[in-house]
From TrEMBL:
This is Ankyrin repeat domain-containing protein. The lineage of its organism: Eukaryota, Metazoa, Ecdysozoa, Arthropoda, Hexapoda. The keyword Repeat applies. Residues 136-402 form the Ankyrin repeat domain. GO terms for molecular function: signaling receptor binding. Transmembrane segments: none annotated. Pfam families: ANKRD13_C. It is found in: Endomembrane system; Endoplasmic reticulum. SUPFAM superfamilies: Ankyrin repeat. Keywords: ANK repeat, Endoplasmic reticulum, Membrane, Repeat.
Amino acid sequence: MTESFPLHECVFNGDTRKLSLLLRTHEIAEKDKHECIFLLLAHGAPVKVKNSQGWSPLAEAISYGDRQIISSLLRKLKQQAREQMEQRRPNLVKALKQMGDFYMELKWDFHSWVPLISRILPSDVCKIHKSGCSIRLDTTLVDFSDMRWERGDISFIFKGENPPKNSLTALDNECRCYQHVRHEETEMEIEDEVDILMSSDILAAQMSTKGISFTKAQSGWIFREDRRETVAGQYDSDLYTINGLTLEQRKRREHLSRDDLQKNKALMESLTKGGQSQQGGIDQNGEIYRRESLQPPPNSEVTWEEYVSAEPGQYPNLGRELVYKESSKNFKATVAMSKDFPLSVDMLLNVLEVIAPFKHFSKLREFVTLKLPSGFPVKIDIPILPTVSAKITFQKFEFRDDISPDLFVIPEDYREDTMR
């Protein structure tokens, strides 16, 4: 067993010399587990992986508390995400071209039966134009402050054939200015994110659909009948209740101090009142205060043989003692399925598979094929909090061959504003 994982054993023992040889690089003599991490990252070790308990290398690094390691993993994670997206870009461009040009209106809103909460929940109608491999999205929501949503006239233009740094542009049509959305984060943005990670709970959440089922929604007390609805005034739909949706969430906070927990509680209270998120601070010299690395946990006395021989999911703890909480919540949602909608679910899946492919995409396609009722989900209503639900409605969709190319061009009288 111990010979089956030579790289793993080198990292466990901090043997950078042997690790270097195994990676076919120069020899490094220092016995430092930190150096093992940097060696693996330098050779493209994937960061977006999880162990059998669902925790990623970044999550474990946050628990350990070494700022340099957290920063290195975060940078590599973002770099690998960009590289994977660029590898998919040719297929994305091809899928968009094959799909046909269209115009679509998508309404989303959060609603609540509590009047005060309902007043501050957002809603918007997004207008989407697609031509060739270009997409334009128009929206009106700009910002949230002082318990109010600020409205404006914002457009996002994606041009699939442009280089990454110029492929996505944001337009403020009221101020008549634009900004190319950066392909990479700045150094300050990375460090800000590290501060947030080091001062927040480590979260892992997933929506389980193992026991999901669809049943036709019914109305009437005595004479029950299947519910039907005309969505957006044009799509005759059958309403279904979605049963068995479960949100599984795990939370760790062994790296947080009592002061951190109090600050996080105050921050959440401020955000619910429309305040601003401020994780960092300014010291007496006017410099941005950054969180320092934590004291490392005591060295583990677990041997490699004990570690590698442990039962799956029961590996001995090598870092801090876990402060861990697990919860799950069942949801019951509703969906309106229409056979009148011009776009098919299969066409949508073909695009999603290119835009956001993941390891088990075939299972998603199988789930849609075997479990999802026939038609297209023109309206979905799902509770996200005890008093708040989210609703997405496809209000309009039409394939068109008269979409103006000017929609995807920055107007000549717009000025570039890099500071927004």
